[in-house]
Structure to design on (320 residues):
């Protein structure tokens, strides 16, 4: 009897379109001889759909044995949909609700990374729009310019900007609050090689298998922004051109943060490699799986077929 796999995609986040592509990749590559798939679409208002019709989540979830979570950003990666799946007792891929929340909250994630000995950029935090001016002034006094301004709870570099000077920094903070950010993190800009490193549980007989780290070379006029990620404008070199020591440090750091957050199944963490050390930036608990995404490139470089990886995720979710 075939396993019925529900694939969640879409969602109410700013990464809706990317999630559609991740879900489409899952649906297209799950081995048909082993699995029956159910395309579960969540629209931008958060309404669930099955077979093209809106319906209640519990009605859909009663039809599946397991869920592959292809959502990104808010609702999909911050623990909200995970709590729903847990409430209905449906096995699913990726981090649980608490691990998802911890990794998505950039301020809490930084604190946890420091606890396990990882370097992170110095930062300031604005928790309310009313604090914007005071925090901007502190940033100008404390950090070399420009700095990185980012929302604490969005993914894929959505809303991230690199700006310098009081007025631009203040404007960037205020813009994020106006767009609905629950808090704004301002970090010193660390210049070095951008890197990302993925890990997969239970692969090739290892409790936590480290994939080859990727070196990211954004366009000269940009950093690894949302547009640079998905426009094809960035160069992504896998394996990255890192020293043997740096490569091993990246792998160890990706494993350390996966364990520190209590994540499950797979994750991908971002770093900056400098001569004086490796700086942790953030972790993706549900890395993109589109044709432009980084994790599939690491899998391919390791000789792991994408279909085999998806089957592995299903088995992990089912506890096999």
């Amino acid at each position: 009897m075939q396993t019925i796999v529900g694939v969640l995609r879409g969602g109410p986040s700013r990464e809706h379109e990317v999630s559609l592509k991740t879900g489409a990749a899952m649906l297209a590559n799950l081995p048909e001889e082993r699995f029956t798939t159910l395309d579960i679409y969540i629209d931008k208002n958060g309404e669930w759909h099955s077979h093209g019709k809106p319906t209640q989540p519990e009605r859909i979830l009663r039809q599946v044995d397991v869920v592959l979570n292809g959502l990104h950003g808010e609702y999909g990666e911050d623990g909200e949909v995970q709590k729903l799946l847990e409430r209905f007792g449906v096995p699913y891929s990726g981090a649980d609700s608490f691990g998802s929340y911890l990794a998505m909250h950039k301020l809490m994630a930084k604190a946890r990374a420091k606890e396990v000995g990882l370097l992170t950029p110095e930062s300031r935090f604005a928790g309310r729009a009313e604090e914007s001016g005071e925090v901007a002034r502190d940033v100008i006094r404390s950090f070399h310019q420009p700095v990185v301004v980012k929302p604490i709870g969005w993914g894929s570099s959505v809303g991230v900007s690199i700006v310098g000077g009081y007025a631009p920094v203040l404007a960037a903070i205020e813009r994020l609050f106006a767009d609905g950010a629950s808090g704004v993190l301002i970090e010193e800009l660390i210049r070095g090689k951008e890197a990302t490193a993925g890990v997969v549980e239970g692969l090739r007989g290892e409790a936590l298998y480290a994939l080859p780290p990727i070196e990211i070379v954004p366009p000269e006029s940009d950093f690894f922004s949302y547009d640079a990620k998905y426009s094809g404008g960035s160069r992504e070199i896998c394996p990255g051109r890192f020293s043997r020591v740096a490569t091993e440090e990246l792998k160890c750091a990706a494993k350390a943060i996966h364990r520190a957050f209590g994540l499950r199944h797979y994750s991908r963490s971002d770093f900056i490699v400098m001569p004086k050390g490796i700086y942790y930036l953030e972790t993706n608990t549900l890395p993109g799986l589109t044709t432009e995404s980084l994790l599939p490139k690491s899998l391919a470089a390791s000789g792991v077929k994408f279909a085999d990886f998806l089957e592995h995720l299903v088995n992990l979710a089912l506890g096999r």
Residues 244-260 form the longest helix (17 residues).
